[in-house]
Amino acid sequence: MRITIAAAGSRGDVAPYTGLGRELRRAGYDVVLAATDTFAPLAHDAGLEFRGLPADTRMRGGGSGGRELMRTAAAFVTELGQGFADVVDKGTDLLLLSTTTAPLGWHLTAAMGTPSLGVHLQPTAPTGDFPPVVTGSRSLGRLANRATGRFALRMADRVYEPAVAQLRRRLGLPPASPSETRRRQERANWPILYGFSTALVPRPSDWRPGLEVVGNWWPHHDPAERLPARLEDFLSAGPRPVLIGFGSMASGDGERLSEIAVRALRRAGLRGILQAGSAGLAADGDDVLTIGDVPHALLFPRLAAVVHHGGAGTSAAALRAGVPAVTVPVTADQPFWAGRLAALGAATAPIPFRSLTAERLAGALGQAVRKQAYSRAAARAACHLATENGARRTLEAVRRLTGG
Description:
The protein is an alpha/beta fold. It is built from 15 helices and 12 strands.
């Protein structure tokens, strides 16, 4: 049986599916990861076949305004919709769709009769328990939370509308808006598995049947892989350092952020590791080291704390390692996850990206590293995450769906 996982976005939106794909492959399935070309090496390293999706997923700048976000999303989806059908051939027996690809993938299932399953990294379904992830972490009350959740879905559907119309014409399907298709999927209880921990987001009791929280899907890395020698030497040369990185965020802000990071570390009396990322963080010194990409699973347990942008994957990786965090959310769902970490007690109060200063960062780092309550909360969450196996739960769902 051939399974295609279609995912698009930044590295954090794609990497978790390499671990999921690897688990499905071990179970005997042929697995294809369809993503933008940037992530072909991730697929190949996990032993998965790769298909390229059209779109430029590079994040530009640190802007988080609503209009700017909508414009960026619309341009991305328009690109993504062009040629999307080309990556799913008639040999696909099951299509697994991420949050970003589901509004397009539904129409492929309609045209080709291929069964599909949602595999989402964010809690997209409206609920009274919390507001939609794109609006931050402040609850508006149960009725307003559900209403804004519905409104957020309608806004997403508007972004996808031109791409969906073009895709349906190409597939020979009659016109249907994204919102009409979404309502049909909801009425049919289309199954969605959510790949995050119930430690951060317990399953809301008002969700419809078919929506399940299964636990994280962890990015694949070779079990034989080791940290670079320079990094091992730095880790061994003194007290546990702090990692500071913004992933695929803050492109073009590297010089300013590097200066803030180094000043904050020295003000707090801590050693630090800067992860270059898209921002291009860099600094030299006996007490600071600059690195590129390394597996979170290898590095995070060796740290005193992690400063990050609040992405879903990095938030989960810090919890898995039992390490406290200082979050600096930039955009999209990042304020939501940052708020969840703080509510859990495993992170300090979020510092909005636009409000970041060396003084604020140093103060937060001092709290995270020296107040034991943060590390104790992170350790409790790590124990909870260890009981979850998102990839195995997904494999069980695939077997139920396919009868295999």
